[in-house]
Design brief:
With 205 residues, this protein is α/β, with parallel strands linked by helices. It has 10 helices and 5 strands, in the order E-H-E-H-E-H-E-H-E-H-H-H-H-H-H. The protein starts with 5 loop residues before the first strand and ends in a 6-residue tail after the last helix. It holds the Pfam family Response_reg.
């Protein structure tokens, strides 16, 4: 890990941010906490390397707004969004706006540490990313038409019920398609599935 890389933890819940900071420091990362996105943005000019962990819902500037502002500022800081199950559509929007990952609550230590490690290592992956994008494009092309329709609904942040209503099939059938998608795409989580799809330029427009 680059010694100048700091993990910036942003959450209006003091207990949550201090708990995350403790976990990160105990695992060898440098961490800095912020009680709001506004507080973090106030010191953004001083930030050079690292990544951001932010809650999606906060007073003032929320996680989605923060992702957009970081993109507009030109700061290449990977952002990991933490979200409750009901806020998954917001998290998907954040990924479309430039967030690297989202993690649903409750999450375990292994999941958050893995996401941080990946975010801190994402700087020099252009060749590998291009190769991976090609593989992902092939996987998506191999999906059936119905599976691609379900995938598009998931990437748009729609619930199983809404996708089922739009496609005229049952929510239980959507669950089966969703499980098949995860297997065929070799995705371990919904966030990874979304990230894969956004990697494919033909389907992320």
């Amino acid at each position: 890990m680059n010694p100048n890389s700091i993990v910036h933890v942003i959450d209006d819940d003091e207990a949550v941010r201090e708990s995350l900071a403790f976990l990160l420091v105990a695992s060898g990362h440098a961490a800095q906490t912020h009680g709001s996105a506004d507080e973090f943005l106030a010191i953004l000019k001083e930030v050079e390397r690292g990544c951001v962990i932010t809650d999606i819902r906060m007073p003032g500037v929320d996680g989605l707004d923060l992702v957009c502002r970081l993109r507009e500022s030109g700061k290449a800081l990977p952002v990991i969004v933490i979200t409750g199950h009901a806020d998954v559509p917001l998290a998907v929007q954040a990924m479309k706006a430039g967030a690297r990952d989202f993690i649903e609550k409750p999450f375990d230590d292994h999941t958050i540490l893995g996401a941080v490690t990946s975010a801190l290592q994402c700087g020099d992956e252009s060749d590998a990313e291009r190769a991976r994008a090609h593989v992902i494009g092939q996987r998506i092309s191999a999906l059936t038409r119905r599976e691609q329709q379900v995938l598009r609904g998931l990437v748009d942040g729609q619930s199983n019920k809404l996708i089922a209503r739009e496609l005229g099939i049952s929510p239980r059938t959507i669950e089966i398609y969703r499980a098949n998608l995860m297997t065929k795409m070799e995705a371990r989580s919904l966030s990874e599935l979304v990230r894969m799809t956004l990697t494919d330029p033909e389907r992320s427009r």
